[in-house]
Predict the 3D structure of the following.
Amino acid sequence: MTDRSQLIKLLATRSAKRGQFILASGKQSDFYIDARLTTMSPEGLSLIGAIGLSTLRASGWDVDAVGGLTLGADPISYAISYASSGSNKPIRAFTVRKESKAHGTKKLIEGPLGEGDHAVIIEDVITTGDSALRAIAAVRNANVSVIGVLALVDREEGGRQAIENIGVKVITLTTTAQIRAVIRE
């Protein structure tokens, strides 16, 4: 079984839920993916770090840093950064807050992200694309170039297109269709 197959199976067994749910986008669904049950587990972190890093390297993108809107993007970003630590071009991780801190430095973006960097926005599950779009806007406002979005799961409900409509390429590690197929096996 490949690492990607193992990741899809882990998402299917740990993160996929059937029932009636309201998604972060406000949409209703009978299928929910609580990606954090996978992304915050040791096995998930290990798989996601290695797969995410190899996917970014294969994309040809020149990546300095990865990150996205907290909380969904955080463990994925950290796993990729950690997986890159022994490479000749380590990738830093950052977090985009939902709103600026009211105290201290009052930052919206936390972590080692600097003006002129090339960043990839990380998303756990894309539905409408709104979370990634918010992170893209915040990072661009910090004078950082956004070269793409890497998503763990694409729900295939128009979010990818919304992101690509503003000129940002999207790469996904899996889709809800692939996760559903494992559940049916």
